[in-house]
Amino acid sequence: MEGIRDPREQLLDLEPYDAKGVAADVMLSSNEHPFNVPAEIIARLSDRLESFDFNRYPDPTARKLRELIAQANGLDATEVLVGNGGDELIFNILLAWGGLGRKLLDLPPTFAMYGIDAHVTGTEVVQIPRKDDFFVDGDAVLERLGQGDIDIVMISHPNNPTGSLTPETLLIDILNATDALVLVDEAYFEFSRHTMRPHMQRHPNLVILRTFSKAFSLAGLRVGYLLGHEDVIREIMKVRQPYSVSAFSQWVAATVFRERVVFQQGIRELIRNRDRLLHGLSNMRGIEVFPSEGNFVLFRVEHASALWRDLLHSHSVLIRDFGRAPGLEDCLRVTVGSEAECSKFLEAMSDVLSARRESRIMTGAAARATDERA
Ligand code: PMP
User: Fold this and answer.
1) In a domain, 368, yes or no
2) How far is the CA of 185 from the centre of ligand 1 (A)?
3) What is the DSSP letter of 362?
4) For residue 332, what is the enclosing H or E element?
């Protein structure tokens, strides 16, 4: 027989995720850490590499890593779940709490994977757009939750790509208003330094997501974790792939976690660089900058996609273009890099913007000259 029958209907209008793997000298598009894991940690890992049992399956419960994370957060290991990056855990939450006939409350513009994973798992997406300043529309959210039919709420805190935290009082109001599973996605927690962890005891429906990809330089390894009530963690364990977090990843992440004080200096440096970017961009004419608590800064500029191209082609600086995302028209997001990378980005920005102004003046002068001749 020839041909292939169609896949599930939900896939027909989806495009495979494209992380836009364009190469550039200054890579500021994916909210990664600018520096690799510190050399002292790599040296320690190398020493023990020869005796690493690559031939064995990993511990499906990532026991050692879970215990370390639990201890640091004043929890029991049964209240922690490790995944193949935060991405896998978001997908698992939708497998466990979403699905056909169930609903996700999404607050766009926000992290796109919430909506994509909902779509793939057949979960209906109910959207309440953020306000013009990108803050959550609290009244609308509480009113919608009051209808009682929402199964999951996902809140990026701080919100990627817009940068702001949701006020803690509103998060508590949301938790009080619903028995839906509320994911507070703290992927950028180490930069915002705000967590909902103190509210876990009182709210068994609260789950918190964290990752090793940002502050701990391990984006390439794929390790994230959830903090949640043990009943919630047990349900999510039913849908997860048992060996999704490799033995190597568990080992490296546990080593990094034990040594996490070493990363504090880098985190402080990135926070300083973030302030430099916010300040530098807000001093540029024609740029609207949004405050950020993450390791990235969102800004709006006329003809953003053209500016994105100029930064890449004339200065080899790669940032993220959100210009086509609903609610983010003419918005670009730059990741906070090293001091040198931030300087290169800011210099490239002022070059591109002054070239724009000059070409406008020239066009204006040429038009006036034509008018005068006419
Ligand atoms: N949540 C948010 C808000 C993110 O921005 C990201 C990464 N872009 C993730 C979760 C997932 O991160 P990872 O899979 O690398 O742990």
Assistant:
1) no
2) 8
3) H
4) strand 331-335
Alpha-carbon span 160 to 254, nearest angstrom: 26
Closest atom, ligand 1, to C-alpha of 88: 14
Q: Which of 20, 32, 185 to mutate to test the pocket of ligand 1 (most atoms within 8 A of CB)?
A: 185
Number of Cβ atoms within 10 Å of the Cβ of 11: 12
pTM listed for this prediction = 0.95
Domain CATH code at residue 341 = 3.90.1150.10
Whether 369 is in a domain gets the answer no
Task: Give tens-digit pLDDT for 206-248.
Answer: 999 999 999 999 999 999 999 999 999 999 999 999 999 999 9
Query: What is the predicted pLDDT for the residue at 361?
Result: 75
CB-defined site of ligand 1, < 6 Å: 31, 85-87, 111, 156, 160, 185, 187, 211, 213, 219, 224
Domain that holds residue 102: 39-258
86 CA to centre of ligand 1 in angstroms: 5
Q: Which two tokens stand for residue 287?
A: 């740029």
Phi-psi region of 96 (alpha: psi -120 to 50; beta: other; left: phi over 0): alpha
- 299 and 199 co-located in one domain: no
Q: Look at the block and give the residue holding tokens 């790599």.
A: 42
Atom 4 in ligand 1: residue holding the nearest Cα: 187
Residues 154, 156: Cα–Cα separation, whole Å: 7
